[in-house]
Amino acid sequence: MNKIEKFIKKKNRSKIICLTAYSKNIANIIDKHCDLTLVGDSLGSVLYSFASTKKVTMDMMIEHSKSVRKGVTKSLMIVDMPYNTYRNSKEALKNARKIISNTKCDGVKLEGGKKICKIIKTLKKNKIQVMGHLGILPQSEKNFKYKGKEIAEKKKILQDAKLLEKAGVFSIVLECVESSLAKDITKSIKIPTIGIGASAYCDGQVLVTDDLIGLNKINARFVKQYSNVEKYINDAVLKFKQDVRKIKFPTKKHSY
Ligand code: KIV
After folding, report:
1. For residue 143, what pLDDT band results from cuts at 50, 70 and 90?
2. Which of 78, 97, 131, 153 is the most buried (most CB within 10 A)?
3. How far does Cα 30 stand from its chain's mean position?
4. Which fold has domain 3-225?
5. Where are the beta strands (DSSP E) in 51-162?
6. Cα–Cα distance measured from residue 110 to residue 35, given in angstroms and rounded to the nearest whole number
7. Domain assignments of the chain as residue spans, ordered by start
8. pLDDT of residue 144
Protein backbone atom coordinates (compact mmCIF):
# COMPACT_ATOMS: atom_id res chain seq x y z
CA MET A 1 0.00 0.00 0.00
CA ASN A 2 1.46 3.40 -0.93
CA LYS A 3 1.42 6.55 1.27
CA ILE A 4 -1.72 7.98 -0.36
CA GLU A 5 -3.66 4.71 0.02
CA LYS A 6 -2.60 4.55 3.68
CA PHE A 7 -3.83 8.13 4.16
CA ILE A 8 -7.23 7.38 2.60
CA LYS A 9 -7.59 4.25 4.75
CA LYS A 10 -7.52 6.39 7.88
CA LYS A 11 -11.07 7.55 7.10
CA ASN A 12 -13.45 6.08 9.71
CA ARG A 13 -10.47 4.73 11.70
CA SER A 14 -8.71 7.60 13.42
CA LYS A 15 -8.89 11.37 13.07
CA ILE A 16 -6.34 12.65 10.56
CA ILE A 17 -3.83 15.25 11.76
CA CYS A 18 -2.61 17.93 9.35
CA LEU A 19 -0.65 21.16 9.83
CA THR A 20 1.14 23.70 7.69
CA ALA A 21 4.90 24.21 7.50
CA TYR A 22 6.87 26.78 5.55
CA SER A 23 10.38 25.79 6.65
CA LYS A 24 12.57 22.88 7.78
CA ASN A 25 12.65 23.53 11.53
CA ILE A 26 8.87 23.65 11.97
CA ALA A 27 8.40 20.75 9.52
CA ASN A 28 10.82 18.67 11.56
CA ILE A 29 8.70 19.15 14.69
CA ILE A 30 5.24 18.67 13.21
CA ASP A 31 6.20 15.73 10.98
CA LYS A 32 6.48 13.53 14.08
CA HIS A 33 2.79 14.08 14.85
CA CYS A 34 1.12 14.72 11.52
CA ASP A 35 -0.33 12.49 8.82
CA LEU A 36 0.01 15.33 6.32
CA THR A 37 2.24 18.40 6.18
CA LEU A 38 0.90 21.16 3.97
CA VAL A 39 3.05 23.86 2.45
CA GLY A 40 0.13 26.23 2.24
CA ASP A 41 0.01 29.40 0.18
CA SER A 42 -1.19 30.95 3.45
CA LEU A 43 2.54 31.71 3.73
CA GLY A 44 1.71 34.80 1.65
CA SER A 45 -0.25 36.38 4.48
CA VAL A 46 1.49 34.69 7.42
CA LEU A 47 5.12 35.30 6.39
CA TYR A 48 4.98 38.03 3.77
CA SER A 49 2.00 40.07 5.05
CA PHE A 50 0.32 40.02 1.64
CA ALA A 51 -3.32 41.13 1.68
CA SER A 52 -4.26 37.91 -0.15
CA THR A 53 -2.69 34.69 -1.37
CA LYS A 54 -2.92 35.94 -4.98
CA LYS A 55 0.59 37.41 -4.82
CA VAL A 56 2.22 34.10 -3.90
CA THR A 57 4.47 32.85 -6.72
CA MET A 58 5.74 29.48 -7.92
CA ASP A 59 9.27 30.42 -6.82
CA MET A 60 8.09 31.21 -3.29
CA MET A 61 6.21 27.90 -3.01
CA ILE A 62 9.15 25.94 -4.41
CA GLU A 63 11.80 27.51 -2.18
CA HIS A 64 9.74 27.10 1.01
CA SER A 65 8.83 23.54 0.01
CA LYS A 66 12.49 22.62 -0.56
CA SER A 67 13.17 23.69 3.00
CA VAL A 68 10.12 21.79 4.34
CA ARG A 69 11.20 18.67 2.43
CA LYS A 70 14.35 18.57 4.58
CA GLY A 71 12.22 18.29 7.72
CA VAL A 72 9.52 15.90 6.51
CA THR A 73 10.39 12.22 6.59
CA LYS A 74 7.18 10.50 7.64
CA SER A 75 4.05 12.45 6.77
CA LEU A 76 2.53 13.08 3.38
CA MET A 77 3.90 16.36 2.02
CA ILE A 78 1.45 18.37 -0.06
CA VAL A 79 2.15 21.74 -1.71
CA ASP A 80 -0.41 24.39 -2.65
CA MET A 81 -0.40 25.40 -6.30
CA PRO A 82 -0.40 29.21 -6.29
CA TYR A 83 -3.04 31.46 -7.84
CA ASN A 84 -3.06 31.60 -11.67
CA THR A 85 -0.79 28.58 -12.06
CA TYR A 86 -3.56 26.11 -13.01
CA ARG A 87 -5.90 28.07 -15.30
CA ASN A 88 -6.01 25.18 -17.81
CA SER A 89 -4.82 21.56 -17.97
CA LYS A 90 -1.61 22.33 -19.87
CA GLU A 91 -0.55 25.09 -17.46
CA ALA A 92 -1.49 22.99 -14.44
CA LEU A 93 0.47 19.97 -15.63
CA LYS A 94 3.58 22.04 -16.40
CA ASN A 95 3.50 23.80 -13.03
CA ALA A 96 2.58 20.72 -10.96
CA ARG A 97 5.48 18.84 -12.56
CA LYS A 98 7.79 21.76 -11.77
CA ILE A 99 6.69 21.80 -8.11
CA ILE A 100 7.05 18.04 -7.73
CA SER A 101 10.41 17.74 -9.48
CA ASN A 102 11.89 20.62 -7.49
CA THR A 103 10.48 19.77 -4.07
CA LYS A 104 9.93 16.00 -4.17
CA CYS A 105 6.53 16.53 -2.54
CA ASP A 106 3.87 13.80 -2.63
CA GLY A 107 1.20 15.87 -4.33
CA VAL A 108 -0.38 19.26 -4.87
CA LYS A 109 -3.50 21.04 -3.60
CA LEU A 110 -5.84 23.02 -5.85
CA GLU A 111 -8.78 25.23 -4.88
CA GLY A 112 -12.16 24.82 -6.55
CA GLY A 113 -14.96 22.48 -7.57
CA LYS A 114 -16.60 21.55 -10.88
CA LYS A 115 -14.55 24.16 -12.81
CA ILE A 116 -11.24 22.39 -12.13
CA CYS A 117 -12.35 18.76 -12.52
CA LYS A 118 -10.93 18.49 -16.04
CA ILE A 119 -7.59 19.81 -14.76
CA ILE A 120 -7.58 17.32 -11.89
CA LYS A 121 -8.27 14.45 -14.32
CA THR A 122 -5.29 15.53 -16.44
CA LEU A 123 -3.01 15.64 -13.40
CA LYS A 124 -4.21 12.23 -12.23
CA LYS A 125 -3.70 10.76 -15.71
CA ASN A 126 -0.11 11.92 -15.37
CA LYS A 127 0.26 10.22 -11.98
CA ILE A 128 0.11 13.44 -9.95
CA GLN A 129 -1.73 13.19 -6.63
CA VAL A 130 -4.20 15.98 -5.98
CA MET A 131 -5.85 17.26 -2.84
CA GLY A 132 -9.03 19.32 -3.27
CA HIS A 133 -10.11 22.44 -1.39
CA LEU A 134 -13.74 23.61 -1.03
CA GLY A 135 -15.64 26.12 1.08
CA ILE A 136 -13.83 29.42 1.40
CA LEU A 137 -11.38 29.61 -1.49
CA PRO A 138 -8.84 32.29 -0.51
CA GLN A 139 -7.35 32.47 -4.02
CA SER A 140 -10.61 33.62 -5.60
CA GLU A 141 -12.67 35.32 -2.91
CA LYS A 142 -12.74 38.56 -0.99
CA ASN A 143 -15.62 37.53 1.24
CA PHE A 144 -14.34 35.29 4.02
CA LYS A 145 -17.80 34.42 5.42
CA TYR A 146 -18.40 30.76 6.18
CA LYS A 147 -20.08 28.66 3.49
CA GLY A 148 -23.19 26.53 3.43
CA LYS A 149 -25.73 28.80 5.09
CA GLU A 150 -27.98 28.96 2.00
CA ILE A 151 -29.53 25.77 0.60
CA ALA A 152 -28.35 26.45 -2.95
CA GLU A 153 -24.77 27.01 -1.77
CA LYS A 154 -24.95 23.86 0.34
CA LYS A 155 -26.11 21.79 -2.64
CA LYS A 156 -23.39 23.22 -4.86
CA ILE A 157 -20.58 22.47 -2.40
CA LEU A 158 -21.86 18.92 -1.78
CA GLN A 159 -22.04 18.34 -5.53
CA ASP A 160 -18.55 19.81 -5.98
CA ALA A 161 -17.20 17.40 -3.35
CA LYS A 162 -18.69 14.42 -5.20
CA LEU A 163 -17.30 15.70 -8.52
CA LEU A 164 -13.84 16.20 -7.03
CA GLU A 165 -13.89 12.64 -5.69
CA LYS A 166 -14.92 11.35 -9.12
CA ALA A 167 -12.16 13.40 -10.78
CA GLY A 168 -9.62 11.63 -8.55
CA VAL A 169 -8.61 13.78 -5.58
CA PHE A 170 -7.37 11.73 -2.62
CA SER A 171 -8.78 14.08 0.03
CA ILE A 172 -10.60 17.41 0.32
CA VAL A 173 -9.91 20.37 2.61
CA LEU A 174 -13.16 21.98 3.76
CA GLU A 175 -12.50 25.57 4.80
CA CYS A 176 -15.10 27.36 6.95
CA VAL A 177 -18.01 25.16 5.99
CA GLU A 178 -21.20 24.95 8.06
CA SER A 179 -21.23 21.89 10.35
CA SER A 180 -24.17 19.94 8.86
CA LEU A 181 -22.76 20.41 5.36
CA ALA A 182 -19.35 19.13 6.51
CA LYS A 183 -21.17 16.14 8.01
CA ASP A 184 -23.10 15.46 4.78
CA ILE A 185 -19.98 15.72 2.62
CA THR A 186 -17.96 13.49 4.95
CA LYS A 187 -20.71 10.85 4.86
CA SER A 188 -21.22 11.12 1.09
CA ILE A 189 -17.67 10.52 -0.12
CA LYS A 190 -15.15 7.72 0.43
CA ILE A 191 -12.09 9.96 0.65
CA PRO A 192 -11.15 11.87 3.84
CA THR A 193 -12.38 15.40 4.49
CA ILE A 194 -9.96 17.67 6.33
CA GLY A 195 -11.62 20.57 8.09
CA ILE A 196 -10.46 24.03 9.01
CA GLY A 197 -13.38 25.81 10.59
CA ALA A 198 -15.59 22.97 9.37
CA SER A 199 -16.56 21.13 12.58
CA ALA A 200 -15.51 17.84 14.17
CA TYR A 201 -17.58 15.91 11.61
CA CYS A 202 -14.63 16.02 9.21
CA ASP A 203 -12.28 13.03 9.03
CA GLY A 204 -9.34 15.19 10.06
CA GLN A 205 -8.32 18.71 10.97
CA VAL A 206 -5.78 21.19 9.65
CA LEU A 207 -4.61 24.48 11.12
CA VAL A 208 -1.95 26.99 10.17
CA THR A 209 0.88 26.12 12.58
CA ASP A 210 1.84 29.76 13.16
CA ASP A 211 -1.75 30.39 14.40
CA LEU A 212 -1.72 27.32 16.65
CA ILE A 213 1.57 28.26 18.34
CA GLY A 214 0.72 31.94 18.74
CA LEU A 215 3.31 33.33 16.34
CA ASN A 216 0.71 34.71 13.94
CA LYS A 217 -1.85 36.76 15.79
CA ILE A 218 -5.17 36.11 14.10
CA ASN A 219 -8.63 36.62 15.44
CA ALA A 220 -10.60 33.83 13.77
CA ARG A 221 -13.27 31.66 15.37
CA PHE A 222 -11.79 28.44 13.95
CA VAL A 223 -8.33 28.95 15.47
CA LYS A 224 -7.33 27.55 18.83
CA GLN A 225 -4.03 28.89 20.13
CA TYR A 226 -2.22 26.05 21.94
CA SER A 227 0.95 27.90 22.86
CA ASN A 228 2.47 31.35 22.99
CA VAL A 229 5.75 30.92 21.18
CA GLU A 230 5.98 34.67 20.65
CA LYS A 231 6.41 35.03 24.41
CA TYR A 232 9.11 32.32 24.55
CA ILE A 233 11.07 34.07 21.79
CA ASN A 234 10.61 37.47 23.38
CA ASP A 235 11.83 36.19 26.79
CA ALA A 236 14.90 34.57 25.23
CA VAL A 237 15.78 37.69 23.22
CA LEU A 238 15.33 39.88 26.30
CA LYS A 239 17.66 37.65 28.37
CA PHE A 240 20.25 37.74 25.58
CA LYS A 241 20.03 41.55 25.44
CA GLN A 242 20.44 41.86 29.23
CA ASP A 243 23.39 39.45 29.28
CA VAL A 244 25.19 41.31 26.49
CA ARG A 245 24.62 44.70 28.15
CA LYS A 246 25.91 43.36 31.51
CA ILE A 247 28.82 41.57 29.79
CA LYS A 248 27.52 38.22 31.08
CA PHE A 249 27.61 36.84 27.55
CA PRO A 250 29.83 35.67 25.97
CA THR A 251 31.73 34.07 28.86
CA LYS A 252 35.05 32.20 28.53
CA LYS A 253 32.98 29.10 27.76
CA HIS A 254 31.65 30.72 24.61
CA SER A 255 34.96 32.23 23.53
CA TYR A 256 38.04 30.94 21.67
O1 KIV B 1 -2.86 27.75 2.57
C2 KIV B 1 -3.14 27.06 3.56
O3 KIV B 1 -2.44 27.05 4.58
C4 KIV B 1 -4.32 26.23 3.48
C5 KIV B 1 -4.87 25.69 4.77
C6 KIV B 1 -5.47 26.77 5.54
C7 KIV B 1 -5.78 24.56 4.55
O8 KIV B 1 -4.86 26.03 2.43
Report:
1. confident
2. 131
3. 13
4. TIM Barrel (3.20.20)
5. 76-80, 107-109, 130-135
6. 19
7. 3-225, 229-256
8. 85
